[in-house]
Specification:
Elements (H helix, E strand, L loop, with lengths): L1 H6 L2 H15 L4 H6 L5 H24 L2 H14 L1 H12 L5 H18 L8 H20 L7 H21 L5 H8 L3 H9 L12 E3 L2 E4 L10 H16 L3 H12 L4 H8 L3 H18 L5 H6 L1
Antiparallel strand pairs: 1-2
């Protein structure tokens, strides 16, 4: 797989993914969710088929060696590129950085394929989602802009910095904002905004003091830890775990947590006793919690 990292570019993997998924009859996670009109049972069958295929390929990879094993691992990664697209879109939306984030997500996917241990009894998708998401989060923390200015603002900032040097050499001092604006043919407000964008290129260090006379680290003044990325991981992992349940279990979950039916109402609808519904819910929730063990315990426990 190390060779795959060097030879399999994300763009090539994406092209292979389209043909492979079409051949297998699989759709992306997002398409599966949006295309509910195809029927819950059909969706469950597709998920189950893909999971069986993935398990078989991992079993073959375990027996293979060298280049043969790398080819199998590449095929597994290509078949799951839809996870990368879904996570990248959820985390950064339609921003210009989506291509870079997808490439980073592909690296996370390859790592997940390399590190996955089928014998542990957890399906590949619930394992891969936190791995891919973690790779993307590290990239954004280490390389991303805190607030990404529009490209036009970035370009004006570069022009303003060049003009500052040029005008300074001509007039023998640093130019004023008004002089810069006149030189560039822009308003003072535009120039001020563009130069202020410099602070967005990298966020201030959380270890920096909050003020010259206050040594308190800035990070200690932040009251809330944003867990939005973890929530994305949880949602995708839970969705994958639910898809592995049989039709009746999925129906019971839907009636209880989507339609907010009582256990007695559920029992009447599916033709069992209220006690049986209670046992079904206990068993299914225990199964789902087990699938979420790879996430933060506090978040998994809230599911």
């Amino acid at each position: 797989m190390r060779q795959a990292l060097r030879t399999s570019s994300p763009s090539r993997l994406a092209g292979e993914s389209t043909s492979l998924l079409r051949w297998k009859g699989w759709f992306s996670v997002s398409n599966d969710v949006d295309g509910v009109h195809h029927g819950r049972e059909h969706l469950h069958a597709r998920w189950a088929e893909k999971e069986r295929w993935t398990g078989q390929r991992f079993a073959e990879a375990a027996r293979a060696r060298g280049e043969h094993r790398r080819r199998i691992e590449d095929e597994i990664a290509v078949a799951h590129l839809d996870l990368v697209d879904t996570l990248a879109s959820r985390i950064v939306g339609a921003s210009r950085e989506i291509r870079d984030v997808r490439q980073v997500g592909c690296v996370g996917l390859v790592k997940a394929v390399r590190r996955f241990e089928p014998d542990r009894g957890v399906p590949f998708v619930p394992y891969a989602v936190p791995t891919i998401g973690g790779e993307i989060k590290r990239h954004l923390r280490d390389n991303g802009w805190f607030v990404r200015p529009p490209r036009s603002v970035q370009e004006l900032r570069a022009e303003a910095l060049r003009a500052t040097t040029e005008l300074g050499q001509c007039i023998g001092r640093e130019p004023t904002m008004a002089e810069l604006a006149t030189h560039l043919g822009r308003t003072v407000a535009d120039v001020v905004q563009a130069l202020a964008a410099h602070s967005s290129l990298r966020p201030a260090s959380l270890d920096a003091p909050v003020a010259a006379d206050d040594a308190t680290p800035f990070g200690q003044t932040i009251p809330i830890d944003d867990d939005s990325f973890d929530r994305v991981d949880l949602a995708l992992t839970l969705r994958a775990a639910v898809s592995t349940l049989d039709g009746r279990d999925q129906r019971v979950l839907e009636l209880r947590f989507v339609h907010h039916r009582t256990q007695s109402e559920i029992a009447d609808e599916i033709g069992v006793t209220q006690m049986q519904v209670s046992r079904i819910l206990s068993r299914v929730l225990a199964t789902l919690r087990g699938r979420l063990d790879g996430l933060d315990p506090a978040i998994a426990g809230a599911a």
